[in-house]
Hints:
By secondary structure, the protein is an all-alpha fold. The chain has helices spanning 12-41, 49-80, 85-122. Residues 32-124 form the Phasin domain.
Amino acid sequence: MTTKPPNFEIPPEMREVAEKSVEQARKAFDGFMGAAYKAAGTLEGTTDTIQAGGKDIGRKALTYAEQNVAAALEFASSLVKARDPQQVLQLQSDFIKSQLQAFGEQAKDIGSTAGKIASDVAKPQK
């Protein structure tokens, strides 16, 4: 005899509160990123190799942080809409896979940029 698992349902009020919380977090993060980009923009007055390379890495790091937080907020939004535990597990599995891939690509890109900066710094100056 098979038993049907209990129905997993999030009450509409709870879902609405969770969705509003995710949206508020998204707005707060957007404000933070705007301020961070503005602050990074004030550092653009110098032109030597190390400062330019550091600025490039900083911009990449901000971009990746923004992408990663956006992905996490999207994941949270998806979880709120999940209909059953299996869907929650699938969403979590998909999120972990995509984030591990993204982190790997981001680390490779930043490492490559850092290597280029080191190479440029080591070159004889003309």
